[in-house]
Amino acid sequence: MNYLAHIHIADYSQTSIVGNLLGDFMKGANKDNFNQALHQGIALHQSVDSFTDCHYSVLALKPLFAQYRRFAGIVIDILFDHILAKHFTQYHSLTLAEFASRTYQQLEKEKQLLTHANIRLPERFNVSSQKMIEMDWLTSYARASSCQQALKRTGQRLKRPVDLSLCWPLFATHREAFEQAFHHFYPELLLHVTRLGKTFNAEE
């Protein structure tokens, strides 16, 4: 999953926003001084990604991107953030704009507390999370143009760059199938998160 979904899941599960985002920034990072909340958030992020990659609704969509099959999972993650953004009040009591504003405040506060506790976060995460706040990434996922830009930027960061924004017309053509798949998948993901949360609570 992508940023919006991981942050929504952090809120849903009442776990660390920073921890849930860190899962994409841990390659080569030192987490020896991380607290339990960060470790739980990272574990939840990884479990969410594994559940997503193996879910039948996601697997059924991947053949649509035959030309980009190696990157289909990445593309679907971003497209699912777009669908979540467009239907956000179906999964949260706040509007997307309200949720984003609150999230940015919580994220800055959590980062400050971690700094005061002498917990160092990966620099890539610090840069990315600051851009998220300054450029309001969370609400941007509701806009088609922003998602196309996100796809393009993601493709440019690959070892062999590819223009993933070219996947957008395929999504537009099969949008109904994507939306049906998401609305089947996401409630099952939230149920998985609930069950995992009980495991975390039992370990405390």
Query: Secondary-structure element order, as H and E?
Result: HHHHHHHHHHH
- Oligomerization status of the protein chains: single chain
- Measured on Cα atoms, how large is the radius of gyration? 17 Å
The span between the termini is: 26 Å
Number of strands: 0
Into which percent range does the helicity of residues fall? over 70%
Mean of all residue-level pLDDT scores = 95
Largest sheet: none
Name the structural class: mainly alpha
Q: Give the DSSP E fraction (strand runs of 2 or more residues).
A: under 5%
Poorly predicted residue ranges: none
In short:
With 204 residues, the chain is mainly α. Helices cover 70% and strands 0% of the residues.
Can you walk me through this structure?
- The protein has 204 residues and is an all-alpha fold.
- The chain has one domain.
- Helices cover 70% and strands 0% of the residues.
- The protein contains 11 helices and no strands.
- Helix 3 (36-54) packs antiparallel against helix 11.
- It is globular and about 50 Å long.
- The model has no long low-confidence stretch (mean pLDDT 95).
- Pfam families: ACP_PD (PF04336).
- It comes from Saccharobesus litoralis.
- One of its GO terms (molecular function) is [acyl-carrier-protein] phosphodiesterase activity.
- InterPro entries: ACP_PD (IPR007431).
- Keywords: Fatty acid biosynthesis, Fatty acid metabolism, Hydrolase, Lipid biosynthesis, Lipid metabolism.
